[in-house]
Structure to design on (258 residues):
């Protein structure tokens, strides 16, 4: 069987409530040169039955434990496509031409990774997407530029150069990978939403914001020598954000993050 252009990795665990949107968004893509890899953590709610009924080229890895980083790595290891994307069961592609547009950008610029923006779905409403800050290693290390994981596509061969997700991390494994990858490979960016991300009480980053920020700080500290000035600027942003999060936790009232 010929190798596909895209390997889409979807991690699931009792995801029946949202998975239908994920699957439908892949099925609607104008580019169908895709293999879909499902990494399931032991679902008991009908998720596996939904996947079994899902048409197309697919592979299912069952009862994968050890956390989300390990699940994502298992998906990467199983992938045979030229480009790998992680589309979790909470998320879905924002339009039918996402994979086509991404494939064209890879072909025209010969880069190792491409990313766009995400649009957040909160309380049933789509929030206007944030403005994309131009990517540079310094801007990302300083916390000014962001890389939204659901909208990232990586050439599979790049993982052999920089490694995969750090399985000791629970929250900031994606930032750790972008810091490694961004040091050796400038990405191409697409200034439009590629993926819709559901923000809800079950989201790891939403439910544990303070712990996530603390782990992010430790991850960024690993790369202090790569961009010391940028890390210093990040520390100022970190202190401001942590004060706001602690105030939010104390008052029980959400605050805006910057």
């Amino acid at each position: 069987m010929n190798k596909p252009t895209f390997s889409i990795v979807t991690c699931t665990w009792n995801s029946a409530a949202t998975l239908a949107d994920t699957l439908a968004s892949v099925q609607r893509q104008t580019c169908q040169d895709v293999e879909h890899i499902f990494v399931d953590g032991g679902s008991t709610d009908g998720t596996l039955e939904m996947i079994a009924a899902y048409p197309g080229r697919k592979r299912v890895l069952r009862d994968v434990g050890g956390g989300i980083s390990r699940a994502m790595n298992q998906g990467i290891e199983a992938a045979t496509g030229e480009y790998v994307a992680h589309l979790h069961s909470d998320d879905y592609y924002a339009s039918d031409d996402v994979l086509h547009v991404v494939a064209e950008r890879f072909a025209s610029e010969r880069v190792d990774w491409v990313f766009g923006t995400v649009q957040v779905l909160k309380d049933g409403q789509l929030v206007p997407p944030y403005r994309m800050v131009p990517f540079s290693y310094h801007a990302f290390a300083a916390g000014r530029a962001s890389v939204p994981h659901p909208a990232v596509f990586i050439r599979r061969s790049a993982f052999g150069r920089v490694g995969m997700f750090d399985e000791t991390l629970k929250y900031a494994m994606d930032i750790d990978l972008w810091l490694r990858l961004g040091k050796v490979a400038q990405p191409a960016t697409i200034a439009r939403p590629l993926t819709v991300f559901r923000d809800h009480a079950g989201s790891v980053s939403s439910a544990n914001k303070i712990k996530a920020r603390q782990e992010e700080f430790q991850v960024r500290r690993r790369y202090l020598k790569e961009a010391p000035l940028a890390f210093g600027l990040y520390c100022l942003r970190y202190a401001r954000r942590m004060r706001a999060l602690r105030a939010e936790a104390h008052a029980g009232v959400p605050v805006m993050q910057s």
Summary: The chain has a mean pLDDT of 93. The domain at 6-251 is CATH 3.90.550.10 (Spore Coat Polysaccharide Biosynthesis Protein SpsA; Chain A). DSSP finds ten helices and nine strands in the chain.
